[in-house]
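Q: Convert this sequence to C-alpha cells.
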Amino acid sequence: DYLHIRGLGCYATNSIEVFNRWGVKVFEEQDYDNSYEKAFKGYSNGRATLGDGKLPAGHYWVVLKLKDADGVSHESVRYVYVSQ
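A:
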C-alpha cells in the first residue's frame, strides 16, 4: 500500500510533506507523481522512528503544496492512518 493522491496528474509542480503527531517531518518528496518508487509507504525518508525506518501505526498529517496551470499556489492538509 502507498499514498495515492487522485487528480495529482493535473499539477506537475507539487510537493508533499508528512508529519507525525508531534510535528516532526518524517517524509518529504518534491514532484510527487503517485509512482510506487517515490510514494509514501509508511516509511520515513527523514527521521526514522524504528530501526528499519518503518513508522509506527498511527495518524500522520500530510501537507500537499501545488501550483495550478496559472501559477497560483494551493495547499491542502489532511491526515492518513498508517497501520502495521
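The chain has a mean pLDDT of 90.
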